[in-house]
Amino acid sequence: MIVEIISVGTEILMGNIINTNAQYLAKRLAHLGFDCHFQTVVGDNPARIKSALDVAYSRADAVIMTGGLGPTKDDLTKEMLMEYFGKRPVVDEQVLNFLEERARARGFEKLSDGMKKQAIVPADSLILYNHHGTAPGCVMERDEKICILLPGPPKEMQPMFEECCELYLNGKRDKIFVSIIIKCVSKFDAPISIVGESPVADRLNELLDGVNPTVATYAKEDGCIVRVTAAAKNHDEALKILEPIVAACKERIGEKYIQYVKEDVD
Fold first, then answer.
1. Is 89 left (phi over 0), alpha (psi -120 to 50) or beta?
2. Fewest CB within 10 A of the end CB: N or C in the chain?
3. What would the DSSP string read from start to end of the chain?
4. At what angle do helices 235-253 and 197-204 cross, to 10 degrees?
5. Residue 3: closest CA among 43, 34, 31, 32
6. Which residues contact 24 (CB under 8 A, 6 or more apart)?
7. How would you classify the pairing of strands 126-128 and 258-263?
């Protein structure tokens, strides 16, 4: 399944905050075994969000969106998505009770309209309760389209993904990705030009054209790394696919220029 990431927030477009959500989600999706070919950032504008969704669903099976779930007027993502998926808005009593209790604990007699808005969720959808904030997320499905909507703050988004979304997505996947990292660095005072990305890539040559596993080089200040990634039904099968290509890479690079070889578990 192909998953696309859409980050909603004018503050991201203007450079006021760094989009760490997309980086986190891309890494988690890769480890879960999903292809992610595109990431998009769009401002808090319903028309532009809809346009981004139209483009995403032309090339992906599912979309993960972050942001736009808060209590302010510019938090419009959920409302726009309910219209997009034809979902009726309903009040989630569990969320409403939680918000009212939280308001009373802070000395407020009643909820503001903005806070009440967070208790409105799409009917006939999977609601993802927020144990680290207030706004719930949700999963909407219709006509073979899937959208997972998560809060924007990373301290809320990351645990919601790990606690709820990974379980949901595990039922949708048919493969996993496993990567082996080869760190190339001179241990014998050889010039950096020997273990830089370009000379290492030259030695690997046609191995870089592989489809499964794939081989890619990345420049580092003290040399480079080679990432060998395989897709398979399970971890053991992936390691079997990786073994001969990793061995070939090591032979071509030269053992004396390799600092370590390890599985990527970040």
1. beta
2. C
3. -BEEEEEE-HHHHTTSS--HHHHHHHHHHHHHT-B---EEEE-S-HHHHHHHHHHHHTT-SEEEEE---SSSTT--HHHHHHHHHTPPEEE-HHHHHHHHHHHHHTT-SS--HHHHHTTEEETTSEEE--SSSS--EEEEEETTEEEEEE-SSHHHHHHHIIIIIHHHHHTT-S-EEEEEEEEE--SS---HHHHSHHHHHHHHGGGGG-SSSEEEEEEETTEEEEEEEEEESSHHHHHHHHHHHHHHHHHHH-GGGEEEEEE---
4. 110
5. 34
6. 154, 157, 158, 161
7. unpaired
Give residue 238's identity as a one-letter amino acid code: A
Instruction: Please give the Cα distance from 177 to 160 (Å, whole number).
Output: 22
pLDDT tens across 20-45, in order? Answer: 999 999 999 988 889 999 999 999 99
Cα–Cα distance, 61 to 195 (Å, whole number): 40
- The token duo for 48 is 């532009």
Distance between CA atoms of 242 and 234, rounded to whole angstroms?
A: 13
Residue 113 confidence class, pLDDT cut points 50, 70, 90: confident
Residue 177 carries which side chain, given as an amino acid letter? F
- Identity of residue 215: V
Q: What is the pLDDT of residues 172-189, one digit of tens each?
A: 877 888 899 999 886 555
Q: Which amino acid, residue 71?
A: P
